[in-house]
């Protein structure tokens, strides 16, 4: 079975074609700058890389370009679209409607559109990708795999409710949903394999650290708490997102600066985080370089970032009632030895120790960086959200289920 995995963003479509016999990635790539100048398709087949620079006005035309490339004589990996058995879509928000991946139909599409208010930056492009695929390949099964589902299916009520009038949960479903679910699911499963124990016996804290970032407490393979909440804004501070803050600050800024609710929303999502603290960049690589050169605000940004992660790791170890492993993943988690070291050095009281010789310079590889006498495993595991989407899609299509 060959499955096309699609992650549709506001101006991009990321894709992989996976042969589920051995879970081999046949081709992958990115259609970027959709609807704007300089659009192009970056396509990779094995070790070969191709760049096709062409106008891509819409998501439908972007997906058509991807599909034509997959079957082309010089760049393709399949002879016809008939070889694609199913399409798996990454969808950010499903609300409480689905606690697992689903076969997409009209009812599911309505639910996804109902969730646009909960994820206005993410769900609309996700929906555009689904609609484009349905139009271009109407007879191919489509499956939605949700960032929220891994958390929604298992978070206890005392962890997902906010202390506001209960009627707002009943009326608007205001609650903690959590995100990066496919990543947290994948790396916790891989962690159990590395440790050599059933995941049902393990207490794991997973740190997905990238431009967006979240931490999850996973008990026996089930998420019991996570830092992102009603939206992806809560929790750790990120590339351009503020993370946790006193909500009264918002009212104060609206009054003092005369800001509208939309301006506040943009400030918190696009002007805050690392960009807001440093005043120059949201890229951790640039921040680390600047800190090494003596930039005080870059140093401050690093200190704030590691401190926030440590606070959540300590809190989640308490929520779990113990800890077997900490996992670092995502662009920063996989590649920043500085962040990993800074987070772990203050957790020695919990029995967390890393081997600097394993950590230093480590980039994007699956490695146990624990010191020999560490009581808690510290693991670096590159995430693979696409394979989670492909696996869920395969299972649903094979079993002909509507809900996993």
How are the SSEs placed, and which strands pair?
Layout: E1 2-8, E2 12-19, E3 24-32, E4 40-45, E5 48-53, H1 59-71, E6 84-91, E7 102-103, H2 106-114, H3 123-136, E8 142-146, H4 149-152, H5 157-160, H6 166-172, H7 181-195, E9 203-209, E10 213-219, E11 222-226, H8 248-257, H9 261-270, H10 273-278, H11 284-292, H12 296-320, E12 325-329, H13 330-335, H14 337-345, H15 356-359, E13 367-368, E14 377-380, H16 385-399
Parallel strand pairs: 1-6, 6-8, 9-12, 12-14
Antiparallel strand pairs: 1-2, 2-3, 3-4, 4-5, 7-8, 9-10, 10-11, 13-14
Helix pairs in contact: 1-3, 7-16, 11-12, 12-14
Describe the model.
This protein is an alpha/beta fold and 404 residues long. The protein has 2 domains: 2-146, 2-Layer Sandwich (Nucleotidyltransferase, domain 5), CATH 3.30.420.40; 198-385, ATPase, nucleotide binding domain (Nucleotidyltransferase, domain 5, 2-Layer Sandwich). Helix content is 40%, strand content 20%. The protein has 16 helices and 14 strands. It has helices spanning 59-71, 106-114, 123-136, 149-152, 157-160, 166-172, 181-195, 248-257, 261-270, 273-278, 284-292, 296-320, 330-335, 337-345, 356-359, 385-399, and strands spanning 2-8, 12-19, 24-32, 40-45, 48-53, 84-91, 102-103, 142-146, 203-209, 213-219, 222-226, 325-329, 367-368, 377-380. The strands form 2 sheets. Strands 5-4-3-2-1-6-8-7 form an 8-stranded mixed beta sheet, sandwiched between helices. Helix 7 crosses helix 16, helix 11 (284-292) packs across helix 12 (296-320) and helix 12 packs across helix 14. The model has no long low-confidence stretch (mean pLDDT 94).
């Amino acid at each position: 079975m060959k499955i096309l995995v699609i992650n549709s963003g506001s101006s991009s479509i990321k894709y992989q074609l996976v042969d589920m016999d051995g879970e081999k990635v046949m081709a992958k790539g990115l259609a970027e700058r959709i609807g704007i100048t300089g659009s192009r398709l970056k396509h990779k087949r094995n070790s070969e890389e191709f760049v096709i620079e062409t106008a891509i006005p819409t998501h439908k035309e972007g997906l058509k370009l991807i599909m034509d490339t997959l079957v082309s004589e010089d760049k393709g990996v399949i002879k016809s679209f008939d070889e694609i058995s199913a399409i798996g879509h990454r969808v950010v928000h499903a609300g409480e409607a689905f606690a697992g991946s689903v076969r997409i139909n009209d009812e599911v599409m309505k639910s996804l559109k109902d969730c646009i208010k909960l994820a206005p930056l993410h769900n609309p492009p996700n929906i555009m990708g689904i609609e484009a695929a349905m139009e271009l390949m109407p007879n191919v099964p489509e499956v939605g795999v949700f960032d929220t589902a891994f958390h929604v299916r298992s978070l206890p009520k005392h962890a997902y409710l906010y202390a506001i009038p209960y009627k707002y949960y009943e009326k608007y479903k205001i609650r903690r949903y959590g995100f990066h679910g496919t990543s947290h699911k994948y790396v916790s499963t891989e962690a159990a394999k590395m440790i050599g124990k059933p995941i049902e016996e393990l207490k794991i804290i997973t740190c997905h650290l990238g431009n967006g970032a979240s931490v999850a407490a996973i008990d026996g393979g089930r998420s019991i708490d996570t830092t992102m909440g009603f939206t992806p804004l809560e929790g750790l501070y990120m590339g351009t997102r503020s993370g946790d803050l006193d909500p009264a600050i918002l009212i104060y800024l609206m009054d003092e600066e005369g800001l509208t609710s939309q301006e506040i929303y943009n400030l918190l999502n696009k002007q805050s985080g690392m960009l807001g603290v440093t005043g120059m960049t949201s890229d951790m690589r640039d921040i680390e370089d600047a800190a090494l050169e003596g930039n005080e605000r870059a140093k401050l940004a690093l200190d704030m970032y590691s401190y926030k992660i440590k606070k959540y790791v300590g809190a989640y170890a308490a929520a779990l009632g113990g800890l077997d492993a900490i996992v670092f993943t995502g662009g920063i988690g996989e590649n920043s030895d500085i962040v990993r070291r800074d987070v772990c050095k203050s957790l020695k009281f919990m029995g967390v120790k890393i081997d600097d010789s394993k950590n230093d310079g480590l980039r994007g590889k699956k490695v146990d960086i624990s010191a020999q006498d560490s009581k808690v495993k510290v693991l670096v595991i590159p995430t693979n959200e696409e394979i989670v989407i492909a696996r869920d899609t395969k299972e649903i299509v094979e079993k002909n289920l509507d809900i996993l």
